[in-house]
Every structure is written in structure tokens, then in C-alpha cells.
Amino acid sequence: MTEAAINPPPPPPPGSIARRLIYVAWWAIVAGFLVQLLVLGATLVARGSIPGTELMADFGSGISWSVLVCGGIALGTAAASPSETVMGGLGLLFAPIAFAVAKGVQQGIQTMLDAPTSQITSVTWTIGAIKAVEFAVLGALVAVLLKRAKVKAWAFVGLGLLLGVLFGGMILTVMATQTAGETPALVGTGVNEILFPAACALILYGASRAGKQVRALARNAGNREAVA
Fold first, then answer.
1. Predicted local distance difference test score (pLDDT) of residue 49
2. 97 within 8 A of 66, measured Cβ to Cβ
3. For the segment 106-153, what is each residue's pLDDT rounded down to a tens digit?
4. Mean pLDDT, range 177-195, rounded to an integer
5. Residue 200 near residue 66 (C-beta atoms within 8 A)
6. Across the chain, how many H-helices and E-strands are there?
7. Computed from CA positions of residues 93, 98, 104, 107, in that sequence, does the dihedral angle turn out positive or negative?
8. What sign does the CA torsion over 161, 163, 165, 171 have?
9. Measured between alpha carbons, how far is 211 from 77 in angstroms, rounded to an integer?
């Protein structure tokens, strides 16, 4: 791997929403990839075999979902003081959009590989609705934490894990009761639903912190120029 592939892009300068989104998108891709690796490992243990053509479809779906939902909520971190209403609203808006795009990517890859295509059913829409509420709550609570001066990264991870357990449990219940889902699929989904909200919350914390640091550096530079 090259140095460019290992090192993330530099933090965005003040007021640059586009660069902030690039910063978030880079980490969202990394998070989506790592979570999918963990999902693959859990599924492999539960199933005892590699999922085959499902692997590429799941990776494509997971990464597209990660980038869109985290990037959408990250728009709310551009303000110096993030709003709970704005970030919650962005989560409510972008979660279903990201979910629909992820499903489209999954079906597109499955079609290209001549694999069985995942069907869109009432259960799919139910899960999408649960995710919309989940990431609305995540966005709002992340905004609350971002306003606290001494909050640490672990608080965001804990928040994400808590929401992942709560809403992930709902999703697993829907899958188990309405689709008679196989154990490997349920295990993989459980890992994904618990870990990803924590990863997304941590990414949002990192984006906001980087923005604050760069704004502080810009103010200091401006003060030095004024004195000079």
C-alpha cells in the first residue's frame, strides 16, 4: 500500500464543507470496510464457509451506506455549535436515502455476478424505517456531546454501541420473526448493526474536533498578523 492510501487526508480548513465531507468520507470508507471484515469473520464462524458471491455485494452495500449516512450527518458538524435538531434531521433524511442506495448497489453487484438478487419486501422497508429513527437519534445525541467541552472519544463510541444494541436488537427481531432468517445471516447483521453506529459516531467526533483545531489555528494566525 502507498503512503497516500495509509494516511488520511488533512483536516478541512474552516468553512470548507466539501473538504470536511471528503475527510468524513475517507474515514467512512475505512470504517465500512473494517466493519464488513468483522461481519465476514462472524458469518464465516457461524456458517463454516466463505459466503462467495455475497461477499462483494455486501462490501459494496456496506461501504456505500457508511459513506452516505455518515457524510450526510456530518453536514451538521460544519457549524461552530452543532444543532441537535439539524443533525437529528440530517440523520432522519440521509439514513433512508443511504439505505436505498446501499440496497441498489447490492442488487447491482448481484446482477453483475449472476447471483440471486435480494428481494425488496415489507421487512426491508421496516428495517429502513428503524434505521431512519436510529440515525436521527444518533445525530441528535452526537450534537449534544459535541457541545460539551471535555467530552472524550469513548463517550461517542459508547453512545454508538448503546444505540446499536437497542436498534440492532429491533432489526434482528424483525428478521428473525418475519423472515425466518438463517443463523449466519443474523450473526453477521448483529455484528454490523452494533459496531457501525459506534464507528459513525467516532467519525463525526473526529470531524468536528479536526474542524475546531483548524479554526483555532486560523484565529491564532489572524491574531499574529493583526499584531504584526
1. 65
2. no
3. 999 989 988 888 888 888 999 999 999 999 999 999 999 999 878 899
4. 81
5. yes
6. 7, 0
7. negative
8. negative
9. 9
Q: Are 87 and 135 in contact (CB under 8 A)?
A: no
What confidence score (pLDDT) does residue 119 get?
Answer: 83
Examine the pLDDT at 54 and tell me if it is beyond 60. Answer: yes
Q: Who contacts 43 (Cβ-Cβ below 8 Å, separation ≥6)?
A: 51, 184, 185, 187, 188
Distances 66 to 42, 98, 115, 147 between C-alpha atoms, Å: 19, 8, 23, 24
Which cell is 33 given?
470496510
Which of the 8 DSSP states describes residue 113? T
114: left (phi over 0), alpha (psi -120 to 50) or beta: left
Going 79 to 200 to 144 to 84, the CA torsion angle's sign is: positive
Which of these, 16, 15, 41, lies nearest to 192 by C-alpha position?
41
User: What is the pLDDT at residue 173?
Assistant: 93
The percent of residues above 70 in pLDDT, for the chain, comes to: 80
- Rounded to 5 degrees, φ, ψ at 163 are -65, -35
Neighbours of 62 (CB within 10 A): 23
pTM over 0.70: yes
